[in-house]
Amino acid sequence: MTLDPTVWPLLWKATLETLWMVLPSALLGQLLGTALGVWLTLTRPGGLTPNPALFRVLDAVVNIGRSFPFIILMIVLIPLTRLLVGTSIGSTAAIVPLTVAAVPFLARLVEGSLREVPAGVTEAARAMGATTSQIVTKVLLPEALPGLLHAFTVLVISLLGYSAVAGAIGAGGLGDLAIRYGYHRFDTATMTVTVAVLLLLVQLVQWLGDRAEHRADHR
Amino acid sequence: MTIATPLTHVSSPAAAPASAALELRGITKRFGGHTALEDFTLHVPRGSRTGIIGRSGAGKSTLVRLLSGLDTPDSGELHLGGENLLTLSPAQRRQRQARTGLVFQHFNLLAQRTALQNVALPLEFAGVPKVKREAQARDTLAQVGLSGFEDRYPAQLSGGQKQRVGIARALVTGPELLLADEATSALDPETSASILSLLTRIQQERDLTLIIVTHQMEVVRSATTHVAVLDHGRLVESGETGRVLANPQHATTRALLGAHQPLAELAPGETLQQLTLPALDAATLGRLAALGGRVVEAQPTVIGGRQQVLVWLGVPQHLSADRLLGQLQPQAEEVA
After folding, report:
1. A121-134 residue pLDDT tens
2. Are the Cβ atoms of A139 and B126 closer than 8 angstroms?
3. Residue limits of the ABC transporter domain (chain B) (predicted)?
């Protein structure tokens, strides 16, 4: 088992492709998922602005979004991806399905973090005359910050996994490299190095996430 | 403070007298089939320290939610500073009620904000610029004895210090009315006493009206000038604290006053029986009397996290004590 030295530039390129797929999707997913999570929290029965009908719709959307296997989701979204990016192949195109998968995933995590903010605190804010948007921006989100950072960490790591799946259908990245060289060509050395890079990325993200969460947590 | 009768509020539809900081007239609030407050009338004199006492389930929490604007009564009038809030739009009403300072049992501080940022929060909601609101918050923290604690997070403060931050937050907007809801119930006795004396001092210095909602008569005794006793959603007794405590008229008041003042002596020929009841209300007293038992002492207590009343009964010897207690409460214990 020897490593072909020409694999290093490929590995570097694949790493960049993976990051290019994952980071924009994670940021977009965090933004939209947080909004959806807040919306779920507000409209749920007993929330600040209960709306049972809307809540049931949002809740169903999140459940459906989360139950789609990612590989199926990618295929289903090809028309949307073509519409937005112009093509359904390549790392940039993968950002679309990755973001769509990220939003409901994150919304659920955000909803959980927001639920940990004690009801007494939001009621106190309401009694002090806070508007609903003030409660969201000045109470709920800042109080849930450690949980939100944790959710972001989990999201990035999940997307690293999803991006490998995206690689299987033409998105490039580390997953693609591992499958093409490692699996199809029986190149165990390249496969091992590629998986090691993925593993290091996951470790790095988890370490950074834990650090950020710890520093942001004053509870 | 007047003892409320149903007639007074029906016959006086005019604005509340200037002497009232807060006046509730004929307030009813129901949750489903349960009536939390029924035809509830209360007059809180301006500049008083008024205790509102009752057992759990008496309607205290509902009252606090109405006074803090978190709930709206089904009927009645709520006058704050001479203005009937219930005729205002919800937005206007919230704006008025935001001027009432609230102190909570569990402090309800924001864990991710420092003491200073917590105190500044109501001003932030009101749109006061950062420099100004932080200066005001700093001053208010100093008034509750927390200079030097500005940058501490709630997790770095003791229970008493957290409640001081809570009080500073309630005061920072300069309210005329301060509402303390079981503000010392989560604190040890020594800390409770210091918080009560702080509230008393602030009430006097700022000449505001203080309402202390509690289930502990000790709190009423040590910190209030007036008291209103709630039972089953109704006002059963009210007046100046000294007068009410010296001569309680209602069984609930006497029960809340507890074992320090035996209600009656044991008569010759009676045996003493102790039992625990969920509440000592008029209906229970009636049933006890019908069965031949006489309450000689009662003391509120907490058993297994639930509010209960320990009751000592004088039972005539010729009555079968076992039968009497069996009809009321299976777990009654004989102590004498």
Report:
1. 999 999 898 999 99
2. no
3. 22-257
